[in-house]
Amino acid sequence: MRTAHSVAAVRNAERELMDRLPEGALMQRAAAGLAAACAGLLREARGRVYGARVVLLVGSGDNGGDALYAGARLARRGAGVCAVLLVPGRTHQGGLGALLGAGGRVADDPFDVLAAADLVLDGITGIGGRGGLRPDAVPVARAARSGSAMVVAVDLPSGVEADSGEVAGEAVRADATVTFGTYKPGLLVDPARERAGALRLVDIGLGPYLPSVPALEALQHADVARLLPVPTGESDKYRRGVVGVVAGSARYPGAAVLAVAGALRGGAGAVRYVGPGVEAVLARFPETLVHEGSPSAAGRVQSWVVGPGLGDGSWATAAVADVLASDVPVLVDADGLRLLDVETLRGRSARAATATTLLTPHAGEAAALLGIPREDVEAGRLDAVRELAARYGATVLLKGSTTLVADPDAGVPVRVNPTGTPWLATAGSGDVLSGLAGSLLATGLPPRDAGSVAAYLHGLAARLAARGAPVAADDVAAWLPEAWRNVVG
Ligand SMILES: NC(=O)C1=CN([C@@H]2O[C@H](COP(=O)(O)OP(=O)(O)OC[C@H]3O[C@@H](n4cnc5c(N)ncnc54)[C@H](OP(=O)(O)O)[C@@H]3O)[C@@H](O)[C@H]2O)[C@@H](O)CC1
Ligand SMILES: Nc1ncnc2c1ncn2[C@@H]1O[C@H](COP(=O)(O)OP(=O)(O)O)[C@@H](O)[C@H]1O
Ligand SMILES: [K+]
């Protein structure tokens, strides 16, 4: 599991650890890890550190101090290191002394040295930064990007919000970020994540002092493998779980087919389809159990998926209400999100412990549920998913460039999905996801696990299917077994 902690948690841990260490030891640990990472990148890019041209962008806090001490280490290995001091009167003095002592220098003209650099270290701001880059830092950050140099962010790309992943203005766009002690939420959540490039974590010994419950967690292969259902000798199709899919309409029969395609690959023993798309579903998947009446009359299921391509006719409205009246886990997606009755939804968890709910909106649907503009959801995804889960008393999977899954209990870390590709932004891929997650619910996974495991497999299947080329939703569904094998293999 990859975990991220809030700035407040990092600061507390840092204080506790610093009390036990000599002055400046933590910064030396950070700088040593940073210099080693930069040396590795320089060796990869140009064969050696000796003779490399390194520019340090140095702000007024300890982030700049890290850059200066790392620069001193690189200078001792023969790199030509030059510091651009953004606030000369407030430069970290110890760091500057170390750099000058190691043969580094202060730049006369930042733009000259940036144009010729092999590597730029962004030490403008780290966890102490607030808001986007200040105006004087903007031209320098742009110049760092415009040459051929690799840009390495120290702890965080300057200008991003560490706790939320928001980018309120300009921010550095890094090729890599070397972060200290723990990941920060902003490194894992867009729009900030996109500015961070490849991530490296340097252990500075904070671990024992960080809270055991992080702010954010990202599943890795081993975590997903542990959560995936495995049939045993005792299993039969009913014991493995039956997922009911209520999706599609005369206008969108394809949504029913795609949701069923996802559901068939999610581990349930059978998929029961209810809705107006019976013909289309059977033509493609003859193994589906079908029913044309109301969901509650279709036979037993261990979970429901309701909403993809359902439209908003009277049958659809009644079907959503019918499903929400059940005591099994329900996943509500797409049109279902517009049709659901909020009081019924909130009442579900009070009625029965088994009546859990997983809502799977994209940013537009989340915006409608929250009554705010879509851009606000996209800019502040983490806040939006937490707010939705709290307000609706349900687990929420917010789709998009970084998919997030939040439980209504604020004490439970939000899950961020590390797989996926922008090629997933293709019509119908969300239908596949809802079928898949619903199937995992039917096997007995709680909503947060079902949602995050589904997002992981879905994103991985898309990557495997795409390998750099466009994919259709149907391809993503077809590659799900390969993604599953990749995880357990
Ligand atoms: N915690 C740990 O365990 C360890 C932490 N370490 C390191 O310390 C870093 C934190 O250092 P920090 O607290 O000194 O803050 P930092 O990130 O340098 O920024 C604050 C300065 O920036 C300024 N500033 C603010 N916003 C700005 C903006 N938008 N644009 C431009 N400037 C802006 C602000 O100025 P002011 O508001 O005062 O005018 C202030 O002077 C951390 O990220 C890590 O690198 C490691 O060495 C070891 C272990
Ligand atoms: N920029 C992006 N990067 C990665 N994944 C994305 C991006 N945009 C959308 N996705 C993913 O693609 C899927 C789209 O789902 P959705 O918006 O419901 O589309 P549809 O309704 O057409 O099925 C979701 O899994 C979402 O997380
Ligand atoms: K930085």
Automatic annotation (TrEMBL):
One of its GO terms (biological process) is metabolite repair. It catalyses: (6S)-NADHX + ADP = AMP + phosphate + NADH + H(+); (6R)-NADPHX = (6S)-NADPHX; (6S)-NADPHX + ADP = AMP + phosphate + NADPH + H(+); (6R)-NADHX = (6S)-NADHX. It comes from the Bacteria. Binds 1 potassium ion per subunit. Transmembrane segments: none annotated. Keywords: ATP-binding, Isomerase, Lyase, Metal-binding, Multifunctional enzyme, NAD, NADP, Nucleotide-binding, Potassium. GO terms for molecular function: ADP-dependent NAD(P)H-hydrate dehydratase activity; ATP binding; metal ion binding; NAD(P)HX epimerase activity. Its cofactor is Mg(2+); K(+). InterPro entries: CARKD, Nnr, Ribokinase-like, YjeF_N_dom, YjeF_N_dom_sf. Residues 10-212 form the YjeF N-terminal domain. Bifunctional enzyme that catalyzes the epimerization of the S- and R-forms of NAD(P)HX and the dehydration of the S-form of NAD(P)HX at the expense of ADP, which is converted to AMP. This allows the repair of both epimers of NAD(P)HX, a damaged form of NAD(P)H that is a result of enzymatic or heat-dependent hydration. HAMAP family: NADHX_dehydratase, NADHX_epimerase. This is Bifunctional NAD(P)H-hydrate repair enzyme. The lineage of its organism: Bacteria, Bacillati, Actinomycetota, Actinomycetes, Kitasatosporales.
